[in-house]
Amino acid sequence: MKRIGVVALNTFREAVRDRVLYNLVFFALVMMAAALLVGQISIGIEEIVIVTLGLSAISIIGLLIAVFIGVGLVSKEIDKRTLYALLAKPLRRWEFLTGKFAGLVLTLTLNTAAMAAGLMLALYCVKHALQRGDTLVLVAVYFILLKLALVVALAMLFSCFTTPLLAILFTAGLYVAGLFVHQMRGLQPQLVSPAMAAALRWISYLLPNFENFDVMGAAAHGRGIPGTLVAHNTLYAALYCAMVLGVATAIFSRRNLR
Amino acid sequence: MAEAVIEIENLTKDYPYGFLQLKKKRSLEGLTMQVQAGEVFGFLGPNGAGKSTTIKLLMRLIFPTAGSARMLGKPISDISMHRNIGYLPEQPYFYDYLTAAEALDYFARFHDFSAVDRRQRVAHMLEKVGLATAGRIQLRKYSKGMLQRVGLAQAILHDPAVVVLDEPMSGLDPVGRREVRDIILELKKQGKTVLFSTHILSDAEMLCDRVGVIVGGRLQGVGAPSEIVGVQAHSMEILFELPAAVERLEALLAAATRTGERYRLQVEESAIYPAIEELRTAGAKILSMTQVKPSLEEYFMHLVAADRAQASAVEVNAK
Asked: Which CATH superfamily groups domain B4-96+141-229?
């Protein structure tokens, strides 16, 4: 466990020193511009616009970091051969992978938390007060974070056996497919053959269900988010990440580092 | 007899290649050898001979097609073995956003040292590899030679019993090479076992108790450098000066090499006394006589040439 922590903290340090957190400046600029303009372009729905814009920015920025840095977590170590000296230490390959995953999730957590704080500040500037219902925004942010953890796990999995470019394409493709799992399950029989419908239904259960993590509308409009959904999503993300990392470990443990 | 700390048994490695990865290139073939406790063992071979492949197999960076290996009595798949092993990869590269001190501290953390112990070890290692003043500079500003020193420092930071160095002299200037040689000799004095690969034969001759020569993925010989090239001297070299040109010596002088006023003459052992007599009669001043042994380099070149000839023959037959 300690060795996983050592790798994780170094991964976090790498992200900080490589100025990954500079994206926060971009986010701050977006939120400031939105807060200034929103009053002029929207009447009575400032809060909805701010929340939607803020959560979308958090999600997009987080996704970019999760995919691009997630893919590089393993491939960069192999390309630059920084991994060679490391694996000669008493460190198992699964510990290395888990540490890298944990390090990037830690980076994303701090990054997302900082952006969430910015969003709440922007909300406060527009409304001049924060209410109990605004905590829904934080639940939505938490769901984004769970989604990002899943994306990092997928990016790492693909980077264990293919090139960075293909890993980016596969991760992005799987993310997009994961946004439509409900549609895949509910395809009308007249649109596709029964065999195809059955196949798509099975595939939809294997795909990561990213739709479940999207509660942006509910948060923006102040609709309640059930506690069971929070528990379900947390458990789903944890199990799916564990499964993906398990497969990644199985592949990476057999990989020749030439 | 000393106990074997590295035992390699019939180690073979094939690399798949081609679009479907169905073809296979044999990089190492049936390597069997042992390295004894406390010895400095040089692994010699030209580029692509299989030296790094062997070392990577030992470090579990790649996996064997066949065969097995044990280090310190444990199979190489046992991760606990790595607590007592230091490894310097070929052309090492480390996280360039870290300083040398941070990088060493990072590697030390995998060995469960206390914070105070880590600090002391890092400072000591930086001093030892001559980076004490550069320890707070990010590695991205380091030269290749400086990175090599960091690599060496991380390999011996935890005081391992076995140190495996892949081309440790590569990229170093003469001063750096001398420092690495001194470190290897110091490790030997401390009773450590050192296995290092190199294609710089003079280093191997100077440092190694035994060497293993590998060419084309096959081990060609193992033994002490003097043993492996054969102890029998083939000829003698006579160094002499002549007061003036002497006609009678024309035949001998034609075979000699002149440097300033001095001549070097290499003669077969059977012809040594007649040559001395001839020189004495001509009034030559004999300065020294030395046995000429085949060097490790000659032996090495002979093996490489033989391997190339065999490879060409196989190619011709295939055609």
From this structure: P-loop containing nucleotide triphosphate hydrolases (3.40.50.300)
Secondary structure, 3-state, B56-94: HHHCCCCCCCEEEEEECCEECCCHHHHHHEEEECCCCCC
Question: Number of H helices and number of E strands within chain A?
Answer: 11, 0
Q: Residue count of chain A, please give it.
A: 258
pLDDT tens sequence across A163-173: 999 999 999 99
Q: What share of chain A is helix, strand, coil (3-state, %, to 5)?
A: 80, 0, 20
B147: nearest Cα among B127, B123, B131: B131
Measured CB to CB, residues of chain B less than 8 Å from chain A are 15, 56, 59-63, 79-80, 82-83, 85-89, 91-95, 97-98, 106-107, 109-112, 151, 154-155
What is the rounded CA–CA span in Å between residue B4 and residue B8?
A: 10
Where are the domains positioned within chain B?
4-96+141-229, 235-292
Nearest to B61 among A14, A90, A257 (CB): A257
Taking domain B235-292, whether its CATH number is 3.30.420 is answered by: no
pTM: 0.82
Residue written as tokens 């509308």?
Answer: A217
Residues contacting B144, CB < 8 A, separation 6+: B91, B171
**CA B52, CA B55: separation in Å to the nearest integer?**
5
Tell me how far apart the alpha carbons of residues A124 and B92 are, in angstroms, rounded to a whole number: 52
Q: Residues of B with CB below 8 A from A18's CB?
A: 97
CA distance A119 to A124: 9
Q: Do the bridges between strand B218-223 and strand B210-215 make them parallel or antiparallel, or are there none, so unpaired?
A: antiparallel
CB contact under 8 A, A88 and B82: yes
For residue range A34-62, what is the model confidence (pLDDT) as tens digits?
Answer: 766 776 676 667 778 888 888 888 898 89
What ipTM score was computed for the predicted complex, to two decimals? Answer: 0.83
